[in-house]
Amino acid sequence: MTAPGSDSASLALLAEESPAMLWRGDTTGRCVFLSRAMREFWGLGSDDCGRFDWSSSLLTEDQGAVFGPFSEGMSGQHAFVCEGRYRRADGEVRVLQTRARPYHAPDGSFAGMIGVNEDITELRAADEELSNRNRELRDSLARLRSTADRFALATNISGLAMSEHDEALTYVWAHNVPETCLGKTPAEFIGPEVGEPLETILRRTLETGVTQSEEISFLTGEQRLWYDVQASPSILPDGRRGVVASALDVTTRKLNETKLEVLAQELSHRVKNVFAVVQAIVRQSASATDVPAAFVAAVEARLVALSAAQDALMSMSDDRFSLRDLLARQLSHLERVEMEGPEVLLPGRIAPYLSLAVHELGTNALKYGSLSVPEGRVAVRWTQAGPDHVRLSWQEQGGPTVTPCPTGGKARGGGFGSALLTRVFEGATGGEVDLEFAEHGLHWTATLPTGVELRL
User: Fold this and answer.
1) Residue 4 to residues 75, 98, 106, 199, 326: CA-CA distances in angstroms?
2) Given this model, what pLDDT does residue 126 score?
3) 324/348 Cα distance (integer angstroms)
4) 399-450: pLDDT as tens digits
5) 9 or 413, higher pLDDT
6) How far apart are CA 309 and CA 345, in angstroms?
7) How far is CA 36 from the centre of its chain?
8) pTM for the structure as a whole
9) Per-residue confidence (pLDDT) for residue 295, from 0 to 100
10) pLDDT digits (tens, 9 = 90+) for 355-388
11) Where would I find the beta strands (DSSP E) of 136-277?
């Protein structure tokens, strides 16, 4: 049973031992009580309360946020809440929130303030982290909205139609496609003529899990349309497998390609006619003069080489040609020629000069070099020489002994053939050439650019 007068002692003990940081101040604001938790925060002894000054540990920049509400509460004798950063006894800065209210003497007069301090450092850190995350989320959403707006604008301008389909191939989402498609398959929505080829692409994508790309065409009345269809696997929001598809109208491009192909064929035909006219002129001029037949044959062979270069260019879809294909065309009449190298595309402007050079090398090898004897052979090899160049090598072996060039084994040529293989070739192609008449056989190497130059 509690002894008389022990209630006050019990309350004092409760306040002293409470884990909460409790305090009480008089009418001047001076501390008259600090609980154990409060004293331990500031490293004070039990007799230090009267001498303690809160401002000694409160960060300077936070004094207005604390003492402003404190002064207003004291003068108006009303409750207040404030928050500030304090330096704890161990030097660590902590955020304390203060809640205070006035208390009164037995006669009802104002006696001061009583309050509790709560360490909310971790709470404020979490608030700051949450604010940062929310800010980042807002920025991300703004960027996504901007990207989505640009995407919608770009696809609307380009005419790109996009859709997503479930495993039954029904539309579950569409862009630049009427909303009436939702819940239907392509065959149901646009008819079997177009829908079934599209469904075949979608189904193949679902079955293989591999992105598909295909052009489909169909007639609408008397006009044929072409669409470039792309399809990739996807996962629907509910976790089911799906496929995202896009369709771009490429009819104009296909029509232009057809026109260009017709024009290119007509141009090629006219170029070959020019070669034929030049051959006729050479023959007629030679028959009227005392020109050796070997000269006429050499000129005609070079014209044939240029014609083969034209065929190589026509076999490509753009202004580039396959190095392997051109070499095969020019060297198809020769035996014991080994070719080795990766698939390389060269700019079309190089084709005539490379054709003439290879023709010259082959003719010389057949007449005077390694191919003039049964045991001779030629190795033609090419390798990548950096991202924008290829190195081509013509190496003769097993032929008649070659008298080394007096300049040290290399020649820049005084005759037409040497000039064609060196100075003319370098100037026309922008490459670098090394021609060596070594004792073991002729060796010609050329470093050629692989990039197509665009000129306006």
Assistant:
1) 37, 34, 20, 93, 117
2) 93
3) 14
4) 887 665 443 344 444 566 788 788 888 888 888 999 888 778 899 999 998 8
5) 9
6) 14
7) 62
8) 0.40
9) 66
10) 888 888 988 888 888 988 989 999 999 999 888 8
11) 161-165, 171-175, 212-220, 223-235, 241-249
Query: What is the side-by-side order of every strand in the sheet holding 161-165?
Result: 171-175, 161-165, 241-249, 223-235, 212-220
Distance CA 327, CA 339 (A): 8
For strands 377-384 and 337-340, give the pairing: parallel
Residues 293 and 122: their CA atoms lie apart, in Å, by: 101
d(CA 383, CA 243): 41
Q: Do the beta carbons of residue 297 and residue 286 sit within 8 Å?
A: no
Q: What is the pLDDT of residue 93?
A: 95
Sign of the alpha-carbon torsion through 102, 105, 108, 110: negative
Q: Which residues contact 153 (CB under 8 A, 6 or more apart)?
A: none
Give the contacts of 139 (CB within 8 A, at least 6 positions apart): none
Per the listing, tokens 């004798």 go with: 77
Residue 407 tokens read as 């300049």
pLDDT above 70 as % of the chain: 78
3-state secondary structure of 250: coil
Q: How far apart are CA 92 and CA 121, in angstroms?
A: 11
